[in-house]
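[Discussion] Sanity-checking designs against the backbone

I'm trying to build intuition for which residues belong where. Below is a structure token string of 321 positions. I'd appreciate it if someone posts a full sequence so I can compare it with mine line by line.
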């Protein structure tokens, strides 16, 4: 309140910048994917293929329908994947346990932001955007495998499914998307105001990477646009894009809280994904035996850790009984 009274023009400029970002970037990028994801979830069969169910259960400890949300999360942008998971739960397709587990690794960014903004605007290279996008995907998969828990037969809320006409499905998908986008844009404007006031604290005197990481911790786009074309910025961009920023996390949390979900370990999972993505980006820039060995070591840990946890938790349950 004190800052608002002292710098009212700054607050107005920050709100205008946030609204401009929503109108020129966020809404055009998210609207088609949010509508499409809801239509796909509405028309896809509730029973998934056997190979899909086995894959999701074996690798991530969730049921097969989560595969749709996982794929959609890499095609759209934040928080399309989280919205898809919540919609699957609300429609009675997946259990509460599946939804809470899937939200740890199904909230990701899409190729448009990586290739168009990170690669094209920051690094002036489509290849750089594609490499960062692949690091983002690989780190998300490993993060999901690391946090996988043994699948249990959780009860699914039985919701009576009605045959909704396709035209009605489109109208409801558009209406739901508009409601979600209004909430997301409100979050973005609020964090635009916070980031603007933080810059008044003389953050410009800090090194460029530190300033970008601090701002990117709060809001992804602001942090990315403070980077320049350099090797250190490449790894910083990988971390910021996979971490997502508190603004993105508040958007996702706003969706799952209204659905009655409680996601434990979400922030630590996203932080882990950010560090893994930055490590893979460094390995790409410096393909030395040291970086490659470290990357391979952490990837192997993520893959084999669930097996040790499954064995250990199984022994605990056996001794308890």
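Best answer:
Here's mine. Compare freely.
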């Amino acid at each position: 309140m004190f800052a608002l009274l002292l710098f009212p023009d700054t607050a107005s400029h920050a709100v205008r910048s946030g609204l401009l970002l929503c109108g020129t970037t966020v809404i055009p990028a998210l609207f088609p994917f949010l509508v499409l994801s809801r239509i796909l979830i509405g028309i896809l069969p509730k029973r998934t293929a056997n190979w899909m169910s086995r894959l999701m259960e074996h690798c991530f400890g969730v049921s097969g329908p989560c595969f749709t949300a996982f794929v959609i999360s890499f095609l759209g942008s934040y928080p399309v994947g989280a919205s898809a998971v919540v919609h699957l739960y609300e429609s009675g397709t997946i259990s509460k346990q599946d939804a809470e587990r899937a939200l740890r690794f199904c909230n990701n960014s899409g190729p448009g932001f990586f290739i168009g903004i990170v690669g094209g605007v920051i690094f002036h290279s489509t290849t750089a955007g594609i490499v960062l996008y692949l690091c983002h995907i690989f780190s998300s998969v490993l993060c999901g495998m690391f946090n996988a828990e043994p699948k249990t037969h959780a009860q699914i809320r039985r919701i009576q499914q009605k045959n909704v006409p396709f035209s009605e499905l489109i109208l409801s998908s558009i209406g739901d998307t508009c409601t979600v986008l209004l909430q997301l844009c409100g979050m973005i404007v609020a964090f635009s105001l916070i980031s603007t006031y933080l810059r008044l604290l003389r953050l410009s005197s800090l090194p460029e990477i530190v300033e970008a990481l601090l701002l990117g911790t709060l809001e992804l786009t602001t942090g990315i646009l403070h980077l320049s074309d350099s090797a250190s910025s490449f790894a910083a961009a990988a971390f910021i894009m996979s971490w997502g920023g508190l603004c993105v996390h508040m958007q996702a949390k706003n969706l799952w809280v209204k659905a009655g979900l409680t996601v434990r370990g979400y922030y630590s999972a996203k932080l882990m994904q950010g560090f893994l993505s930055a490590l893979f980006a460094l390995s790409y820039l410096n393909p030395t035996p040291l970086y490659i060995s470290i990357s391979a070591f952490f990837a192997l840990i993520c893959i084999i850790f669930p097996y040790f946890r499954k064995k250990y938790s199984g022994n605990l349950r056996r001794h308890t009984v």
